[in-house]
Amino acid sequence: MLLRRLARPLLASSFVYDGVQAAKNPAEHAAAAREGAALVTERLGTSPLTESQVMTLVRAHGVATVLCGIALAVGKAPRTAALALAALTVPLAVVNQPFTAKGAEREARTAKFVKNLGMLGATVIAGVDLEGRPGLSYRVSHASAAAARSAQLSARSAQRSVHDVSHRASHTVSAAARKAEKAAQRAAKQGRRAAKESRRALAGVGR
Question: Carries keyword ATP-binding (predicted)?
Fold first, then answer.
């Protein structure tokens, strides 16, 4: 946590500085912005931006960069601020690409382009930093494993319940059979006793 509190302002400082410079002195950035805007409008088939529109675009980009940099530095929605800075860095990388330049301008653009790529990577990493909390994929896999364990326990419980019911039913049937057998034995015994008494009575009458 302490390292994040130190690292975020360090990362944001470059963005805040560049944003302030662009907002205060848009003319210094207008040439690169104009060329980048021309590439975009040419691809879209729209009319090129005027000088005033280019200046306004540079200032707006600078102000947005400053605001997002400050938010990242103070830890106000840091992930959102970092991802916003990453998005704001993309057009800078586009206008500073060195592939269409030559000579000294190509070398200068290459330095800026590499810097933009590095800042883009840093802000993306800061934007996906979960501060030690588990990510979505971990939570999904953990929930799936928990659901599987719960289903397995439920299945085992159901099996035990079926076994208990079957055991009780078998015990009940066995007990009923034993009772019926005892009742039959008692009835047979009573029948034999009655037959003996009948024979004795008949023998007494014959005498």
Answer: no
74-113 in b/e form (b: 16+ CB < 10 A) is eeeebeebbbbbbebbebbbbbbbbeebeeeeeeebeebb
Cβ of 34: how many Cβ atoms within 10 Å? Answer: 20
Q: How far apart are CA 153 and CA 197, in angstroms?
A: 66
pLDDT digits (tens, 9 = 90+) for 46-98: 888 888 888 999 999 999 999 999 999 999 999 999 999 999 999 888 888 88
Place of tokens 């928990």: 146
Rounded to whole angstroms, the Cα distance separating 181 from 22 reads: 104
